[in-house]
Amino acid sequence: MSRGCFIVIEGIDGSGKSEQFQRLTKRLKKRGYKLVATREPTKVYPVGRLIEKVLREEEQVSEEALALLFAADRADHTERKIKPALEEGAVVVSDRYVHSSLAYQSRGMNKELDINWIEKINRFALEPDAVIFLDISPEVGQSRLSNGQVRIKDHSYFENINQQEKIRMVYLEVLNLHDSPLGSKKVVVSQAGGTKVYRVDGVLPVDAVEKIVWRQVSSLLKELNVEAEGKDSKVESLTKFIEE
Ligand code: TYD
């Protein structure tokens, strides 16, 4: 049995990340990969539920506490769901993971926190096999959100363009993408530690982005010798996360 594969999709608000997450997981399921489709904040674990309330401004916590909550939710998610799934040889796809904390908590909040500290409190987090970074300018991201093309945000954290641009810059830094500009390319590949990073041009039509992502993921799975089990696999229960 293979060791499985851990893939994370990242991007700023309005990058089309959640749509691409749905499309990628649908394809994996159809091809018969044993799949765990999941997300952060988890929404279903206790700390994730509290984070939801904070993002909806129903509860208030300090920025430091919020960073710790994201890390705690991730600890639960990693131990209870991601690790066991990988041990069973599944493909785990997560809509956001540790790079979201590095980017959003270090530059995206009113109080900017030390990125080294954020790294420290997330030390238990796994190094994904791959991160797909859907790259889009904050202006385009915001116009998509306000056009209703992407779900209207249900919280007012992180929503201004200035903050989104800062968040994007941290992503580029921590994902080691500064030396891999898109230029006229649709996708460029980079490496950040043990993680393969795919920077995909998020401005392209959704179908084009879907194809690019699929091409990269299917060749990665081949490279890692992760094999599909058969036709139209059963998906682990955490897909409930995305069907809510
Ligand atoms: P949500 O509406 O659940 O999903 P999304 O915006 O990804 O479609 O919002 C989650 C918000 O939480 C999003 O603005 C990013 C932010 N976030 C952090 O600030 N730190 C984190 O570690 C994670 C996982 C998310």
Proportion of residues in helical segments: 40-55%
The tally of strands reads: 6
* Unreliable parts: 237-244
CATH class: Alpha Beta
Estimate the mean pLDDT confidence: 90
User: What separation lies between the terminal Cα atoms?
Assistant: 31 Å
Biggest beta-sheet profile: 6 strands, mixed
Tell me the number of helical segments per DSSP (H or I, 4 or more residues long): 9
Number of domains: 1
In CATH, the homologous superfamily goes by the name P-loop containing nucleotide triphosphate hydrolases
Cofactors, ions, other ligands: thymidine-5'-diphosphate
Instruction: Give me the strand/helix succession.
Output: EHEHHEHHEHHEEHH
Using only C-alpha atoms, the radius of gyration works out to 17 Å
What would the CATH topology be? Rossmann fold
- Shape type: globular
Class derived from helix and strand content = alpha/beta
Which strand order spans the largest sheet, edge to edge or round the barrel? Answer: 2-3-1-4-6-5
* Beta-strand percentage range: 5-15%
CATH architecture label: 3-Layer(aba) Sandwich
Topology overview:
Blueprint: E1 5-10, H1 17-30, E2 35-39, H2 46-55, H3 63-87, E3 91-95, H4 98-107, H5 115-121, E4 130-135, H6 138-147, H7 161-174, E5 187-192, E6 195-201, H8 206-223, H9 240-243
Parallel strand pairs: 1-3, 1-4, 2-3, 4-6
Antiparallel strand pairs: 5-6
Helix pairs in contact: 1-8, 2-3, 4-7
Thymidine-5'-diphosphate binds next to helix 4.
